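Researcher: I'm comparing several assemblies side by side, and this is the next one on my list. It has 764 residues spread over two chains. Same procedure as the others: predict the full complex and return the structure.
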Amino acid sequence: MREVAIIGCGMIRFGELWKKSLRTMFVEAALKAIDDAGVDRIDALYVGCMTSGLFVEQEHLGALLADYLGLAPIPAIRLESACASGGVALRQGFLDIGSGNSEVVLVGGVEKMTDTDRVTDGLASAADQEYEVFHGVTFPGLYAMIARLHMEHYGTKREDLALVAVKNHKHGTMNPHAHFQREITVDQVLASSLVADPLRLLDCSPVSDGAACVVLSSLEWAKAHGKTPVKIIASAMATDTLALHQRKEITTLGSVVESGRKAYAMAGVGPDQIDFAEVHDCFTIAEIVVSEDLGFFKKGEGGKAVREGLTGLDGKIPINPSGGLKAKGHPVGATGVAQAVEAYLQLTGRAEKRQIKDARIGLIQNMGGSGASSVVHILEVV
Amino acid sequence: MREVAIIGCGMIRFGELWKKSLRTMFVEAALKAIDDAGVDRIDALYVGCMTSGLFVEQEHLGALLADYLGLAPIPAIRLESACASGGVALRQGFLDIGSGNSEVVLVGGVEKMTDTDRVTDGLASAADQEYEVFHGVTFPGLYAMIARLHMEHYGTKREDLALVAVKNHKHGTMNPHAHFQREITVDQVLASSLVADPLRLLDCSPVSDGAACVVLSSLEWAKAHGKTPVKIIASAMATDTLALHQRKEITTLGSVVESGRKAYAMAGVGPDQIDFAEVHDCFTIAEIVVSEDLGFFKKGEGGKAVREGLTGLDGKIPINPSGGLKAKGHPVGATGVAQAVEAYLQLTGRAEKRQIKDARIGLIQNMGGSGASSVVHILEVV
């Protein structure tokens, strides 16, 4: 397979964007990415979006967005893997260029979540409709079960969960594209409304609108055209059962372990060589579990690691320098691509106040549902 | 790019399948395809589905179906391009193997359309929500405008449209997987309920449940393992505006012309070398327009060609030997893959009563909406 690189990125500030529709958000992010890459050709468009059908009654986003960008008649496809839709869009763009079929590809993610009164129903479509949703459980409940068991098995403390949110909000204050740019305290998290015991409101990522894009090209093309490439040295995906009750164990996410394992093998690096990671902290417990399942910490020690500051900007392995889903916001289809935007900025030294010193290798992990799908990419400075 | 082949296929009989859910339909079709290919490995799953969110409130189909097939933790992704979702799934499977990333891939399409009272709303999400659907137009209305203008510009007759349905129903009687397996007459079409003038009920493809799958591998792997490969010699996709009013011309579909042009160039063959075609006859007028836009007939002569029998099983270019969307049924996400199933059966001499003599090269064309996206594959006997 040919070598593939990210050569530009663009995103809009996530938030409750009442004045922007799905298509206007996407076009804004895409034009920024195209400008940033400085390209005058796009051979194909891959768009990650989870559930525009349920949220805004609009499918067929590939063609729609290619047209609104003035890019028709290029091939344009929408990809979906619940909240990992952005990650799979990045993966398909990677394979398209890797195969030699395309030279320059636009990968985007978008979700318009505030124009509906059915957000919880829409998100629940990522869980097993027949065996989970029908019985009334939604995602806060599913992740609460994971949190409760993690606390019982490993002694993870309620405060450890809160510290994930506190850290990510702190990082968010340094990210001009973050939905929330204010610090919060452990006391505020512990005093916020109970959503699904033990998870409280400030343990949950918000409902956001947003769009994010990156431009990919073959490494060869990037070099020949004087671009600033960051090489994608691994792209891996793995799946698991949708329904939590079908798994042998729920304090570890099999798809995360497997996608991480495959990505490390493909890149030829281990967790110790990763300089920072953007991971899928849809709930605070998710960041703790994922940080263990990707091998940054031993199983059960993710909570302790947060407590000891190992995942802060100057820690052993900075996690979610962007603010993560918790503070940057979580427009679901956009999230996986926004992680790639953050990694590109970090690896090209453009992350301003939140810049991680000497960052050369970054890992991004995006997942769907309660970990039924997980996509890991590893990126390296050329 | 590596050479890629289809090595097995399977589908269920399309219809109003009250006793089968989305997942059971898909598993049944997938197991048939895996059995047919005789493989004991699947490296990745690509599923085409248009709008399972709106129809059955279930997204995240890649992981769900991989799990129900016992294939987790393989990578599994759902692709969407409205009614061309099956075609884009095939294309992504092709690129995955072509890149060298995977060796054996399962490509499937599925749609469960009869478990909702919102089929028309759901399908309308393939049109432009803000500029078409909001104003009340649905797909029969959009294609009716195309039909009316085609009749005015080119003298296409109302009876020509009817003859497309009559031909495809005749073909359907020879296909054990077709939703409708009975012949109809021109008089019956002309006497059926008016849906959107000039289109009547029997000009419209039905609302069907169904699933279809093919197994792909690299040609090299297929040969080394004694499979029966049919080579994919072209995969091309093109897009256009979602909204009909934004196009300069509506009696020709730009995405079909462009995807056909690119496919012929990639395969190194022209329309005269195609032995049969499966095209997207969501409405009778669509088959006529597409047969012109793919170069089988001059612009405006598609109606005459049907009248003269050129598109029948023993005509110059047999079109929709399977019965097409009109008679075989149109579970939207499954349609593009079902076309590949038909092509594989025809090119391996297994199409029974509807077998086209000496078929060596087949073309399949799948489109979304009123032609905002079109995917063309060309297949050849090895």
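Model: For your comparison table: Chain B has a mean pLDDT of 98.
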